[in-house]
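Please, structure for the following, as tokens.
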Amino acid sequence: MKPTLSREFIADVLSRSVLDPRSRALYDLCFFQRHHLRDELVVDKLRLIGRLYAGAAPGFSPELGAHWLSKSPVDHWFAALSTAEQLDGWLLLEVHKRVMDVFFDLPEAEARSLASKYLHFHFPELFCIHDSRVEAAVQALGEGDCGFLAIGEHDPVYGRFHAGCRKLADRLAPMIGRRPSPRELDRVLRAWLDLEEAGHTGQEARYDVAVPMPAMASTLSAISLATPA
């Protein structure tokens, strides 16, 4: 039987705040330090992403990644996102591909995932985080195949994933009275995966059991973030 998401499950997930202090710190850092003028701040962003997603891009050097980002026109790409009169899927996919290409020294799958994470924390209302777990959840909960025509420059794997996320968000909109943002959709999908991996399966995802929340062993004071002089 095809799994579904219940209205109660979605409402409960979205009612929770972002508890992990590392996530809060990363969202704040990317919001207040969006530009790439200081390599040490970019290094902090990449290190926090690595801590949040353990096992992602093994052997990746945040220092080298920060160097390549600072040498790239990434601030011009970000400005295009911030000033565009109308944001469409093509622009988002083009920017993702350009950031993905910055991480050229990584295997393709790791570069794709890292680019999506880096963009998400700078633009949480625009970009969905891609990794194998979330991609599997989108495929399981979605209806039918999703895809983008091969027009323009974009990564086809992320293009299909992006289309699947948009389609799933449209399906969930009537349940919560609005279209969930990529940030909200990511939280719902990861909570659903936590239940599935814990062995709680059924026709619809419910919160009759506790969902493991991120460990809070670290505190904001324990996170080393460079601040402007």
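DSSP finds ten helices and two strands in the chain. Confidence is low (pLDDT under 50) at residues 201-229.
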